[in-house]
Structure formats: C-alpha cells, structure tokens
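Support request, priority: normal
Reporter: lab tech (M.K.)
Component: structure prediction queue

Hi team, I submitted a job for Acyl-peptide hydrolase from Nibrella saemangeumensis yesterday, and the status page still shows it as pending. I've pasted the exact input below so you can check whether something in the sequence is tripping the parser. The sequence length should be 671 residues. Please let me know if I need to resubmit or if it's stuck on your end.
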Amino acid sequence: MTLKRSAVTYFFALISLAAAAQSPSKRSLTPQDVYRLQAISDPQVSPDGQWVAYVQSAVDVAKDKRNADIWMVSWDGKESIQLTNSPDGESKPRWSPDGKYLSFVATRNGATKPQLFLLDRRGGEGKKLTDLKGDLEDYEWAHDGKRIALVVRDPDYADSAKTKIRKPYVLDRYHFKQDIKGYLEKNPVHLYLFDVAAKTLDTLTSGSFDETSPVWSPDGTQLAFVSNRTEDPDKNQNTDIWLIDARKGATLKRLTDWTGYDHSPVWSPDGKSLAYLRSTGSGNFLMYDQPLLAVISKDGGEPTLLSKTLDRPVRNPRWSKDGQSIGVLVEDDRQVYVGQYAVATGKLTQLASGNRTFSALEPKAAGQWLTLMSEPHLPAELYALEDGKPRRLTTVHDEFVSPLQLASVEGFTSRSKDGTQVSGILYRPANAPAGKRLPLILFIHGGPVGQDNYGFDLSRQMLAAGGYAVAAVNYRGSNGRGLDFTKAIYADWGNKEVVDILGATDYLIEKGIADPERLGIGGWSYGGILTNYTIATDSRFKAAASGAGSSLQLSLYGSDQYTNQYETELGAPWKNLDKWLKVSYPFLKADRIKTPTQFMVGEKDFNVPVAGSEQMYQALRSLGVPTELIIYPGQFHGISVPSYQKDRFERYLQWFDKYLKAPAPVAQKQP
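Reply from support: The job had stalled in the queue. We restarted it manually and it finished. Here are the results:
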C-alpha cells in the first residue's frame, strides 16, 4: 500500500515550480510521451462519502503493456492511497455496503479466468472470493453486504482437450463475429447469486439469452437487469429492462416493452421506480439514434421520457441521494456537460458545462457529485462537483503536462457549400508565428456517431506538436447537434460528410490559417473511411493517413461485424447492388486518387477487417501512387500495445513531414 499525503504533494509541487523557474522553456510533445501518460477510470464513492476508489493505469515499459491498479483519494483531496500493486492488473473496484472492504476483479497467479477479490481498505492483500469457470463480466453488491450478483459467461470448453488444440468453430448465429471477442459461438451470459460468507453460488438465470447490467432494489428483494429475449437477438437491438426476485428458481418479469433498446437501469432511492435509457427510435438497427432519459414504475406502465424534447444524447443516469432528481451527462456541440432533471417537473438544470468534457458521474450527497473532467490541456482527473463548481481531487496528470508546451485549442464554425453549419475544433502549434499559414491536417473522428469535444486529445496534440495546424470536424453524422443532423448520412456514406470536411478546409484556408498547398488528412475507423472518400473526391490533399478504414464496402458483407446494419441501411447486396457500388466509390474510382496515402490496421480487426486497408494499398500500389501499409500484429480495432501506439504517431509524423514539409522545387531559370 502506498500513501501520498498532502505535505508530500506540496513539497514536490514546490520542487516542480523551482525547476520551472530555473528552466522556463518547455518542450514539445513527442511520441515517446505515450509511455508517460496515465489514465483514470471507474470512480466509486464510499458509503460514508469520505473516499473515492478508482482505477489508475500506467505503462509498464518493460512488458510493453498497460497495468491497472486500484487507488483511492479522500473527498477533501488531501490523501491519495494506492491499494493494489500487482503485475496482473485489477479492475471494477466496488465498495462493500458497510464501507470496510473494496472488491475488485483480477486474474492472478497464472489463472486463466478473472475472479472476484476482497480487500480490507485498512491494508493487507486482496483475498480471492470466487473460483468461477466462466468469464466474470460484471457484479454488484446487495445492500445487506451478504450477497453479490455476478454476471458470468458460460464456459467455452472448445480448447479444454489435453492437446490444447482448439476444436473447430461451429457457427450458426446470424451475428457470428465481433472485434476482440472473435468468432461467436453460443456462450450466453447469465446472472448468479454469490453468498459472501459461505462462498456458494446459486444460478439465477439460464437458457440461451444474455442477461446483463444487474442492479439491486434498495430492499434487496429484486434485481433489475437487461436482456434481449426476442426470437433472434442477433437481428435487432430490442433490449428490455427485466425484474427477478433475488432467489433461486424465481420467475422473470418484463418491465419495458419498447421495440428499440432500453438499458442502464438504476433504482430510485425509495425503490418505487427505475430510471434508464431508452432509444428514440423503435427500429432494429439504432446506430444513428440517441438515448432518452426515462423513468418507469417498478410495477410497469408507461414510462415518463424526461429528455424527450432535449434533442441531445444523454447517458450515465444517476439518482440524487434524496431521489428528487436524476443526474446525466449530455452530449452537446463539442461539449459534454453535467445536467440534472427534476423528476417531478422534468426541468433540466445545467450543473457544470463549458469548453471541457465530463465522462463519469456518481452521487455523493445533496448538491454534491463525483465526476471525471477533462480539459483541452489536461487529461481526465477526478473532481468533486459541489453546487455546480468543480473541485479537483486528483493530480495524476500534472507530471505529464508540466514539461510540455501544448497546442492552443479553439472552436470554429464553417459553412458547407450546401449551407450546412458545421462545428470544428482547431489546434494551433505552440508558438506558431502570427499571420503565417501553416500546413494543415484534418484529423477526422470515427463513429460516425460520435463527436470531437473539448477534452484532452493526444492524437491531435501530437500532430500539432509536429508543427501542423490540426482540425477536428464534426461532420453530418456526428452527435451533439440533434437527431436529424446525426441521421443525415443514413444510407448515403461519403457524401455529406465529405462536403462538410471540404467546407471546413475552405474556411481554414480563407481565414489565412491553412496553406492550400500543404493539406493533409487522416483518421481512424470511420475517420479512415472518410479519408478514403475525401481523397477520391478532391485531389488537393498532398498526404493522407487512413487508419482501420475500408472502401470496397461490398467486400465487407460477412467479413466484419455489421451485417445487421448493412441489411437494414443498404439492403442485401443481391437486392441493392447499385447502392453498394455507390458507397464503394473510393475503390472503384481509385484511379482518381493522386494523394500519397499511408494505410494502417490491426491484424485481428473484426470491426473493419484488414482487407479494407489491403485493398486500397494494393490499388494505389498498382496505380503508382505513393503508398505504404502498416499492419500491427495481434491488434484489434484499437491499438493497445504502447510501443505500437508510439510507432503509429512516429509514422504519422514521418509521412506528413515527407509530403507536407518537403522543400518546394527550385524554379528553373529560363534561357
């Protein structure tokens, strides 16, 4: 156990200030800084409100991986204590109801399955509670502290033979593959009741359906959970909230009957109702949807949709301690703010907003919340939110940012050629000469349903540190601007988004920020896909970096995890070939591309498989356009190995430097 007291913190702060005074110049961010960046997640307030437990991860350079430990910080922010320090890593800290213990999930001592551990908050080692054969995916304490609801996936016995050779995958599901999880056989997730004292396990649910997100009623008699129990859950997103008595052999009761999704249930403090998130639409594919805050009686009936008129996505619903209001995080035009709905009137109050991003929310006491907040120049830290004013609790990232000279960050608004107003964020390199045009990189977000916001962005800061103006563009399809804005690209990929990206490019050139002769573009996932669409539309970009993208969309049917989306949005290829060919234009019109392009992808990506990058690489190689292909071994859609993350930044900068910073050719004198 490691204890860091306020006096020690202040002592090192004084040393840092003294060092800064002696060496006032700061340095630029470099790819090597990937190894220094830590992360905070999953904060939990203790029952007495005096402590906050959380997960803090850091890079183990020797092992080339991130390792997560459990920490806690006092509510006054004066003490910070590291509770675990093992090479195996820990996650999901949860307080016992009496506040004496912290439970967590870990895979220790050579075990192959994660287990639940219990740690006395006063000190000592974590003790293993469970011996599960399947994967532990989630858990929640009952309010009496005697029972724990577990979410466990059925064991996979396919590789249990003595030879260690896995049996063949036998697949008969509509949705048969998923990034990270791989090929999907039938191993459903079920609920179990674990007796803490006796260490016994009772089965609560069984069968072929998944049951997730259990939450205990305040009196401990029932569990609410989420399940899709339609005939073929793979073909829709129709999850509902269900109730079950907390005893073996109990009967399930469906609480909601909306044909879209219902999820994230939380009980009111009096146990009479539940808040949850409900989709706006009722279709079977809801990627372009946005969740509403709903409240329903535990006895059923019609829910009250508190955020129905907001036209913004809400998430992380949490009841206030007095049960009079529900706190939420709201996505709104480059911001994520903390809002609070009065249950009786439906009135929304903004508790904390501004050019920053909130990413977690937990109640503490009347008028007090715990949150994670990130700002343009500071990664996420824990804050106490008291009467709408954030008070910082942790200083995890001070050491990371203190030596760095980061890019300035400002919002901008451009107008596309069809008149659409588009929001963006501009990163200017530190000490960029005033009035001088800079090489520009448009770095495009994925999703497409997401948004670039005012939180700390390592990728764009890294590119700006290389001397580039970097623009984030919330093209049509992004959230935070209303449902119609998000749904504008439905079944029409690579059209309006490209119009918006080019409109932002024109705006930055017009304002004297971007050098029109030194334009670059890049992105990951749908950002990589849009990179391909854009360079196939406009040849003025001198360099591109397409990450985990695709272009010949027709070839991905059955190869990635999006069959449900394809058949709903585009129709089956054999019925709507013209539409499939239309959205595949970057490959089918690859001879229009003149931009030198770097392609990157994870070897095991099932989200946007490696073929999407290979095809475009091969096309440009055949056409004689400068190109290269980088495949990261063993990686999924997200690149998680720290050295690969560093490598990716280095290759971005090398590629863009080569084509955007190369000296102009010397003009030949005429005879």
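Residues 642-660 form the longest helix (19 residues). The CA atoms of residues 2 and 642 lie 25 Å apart. Let us know if anything else looks off. Ticket resolved.
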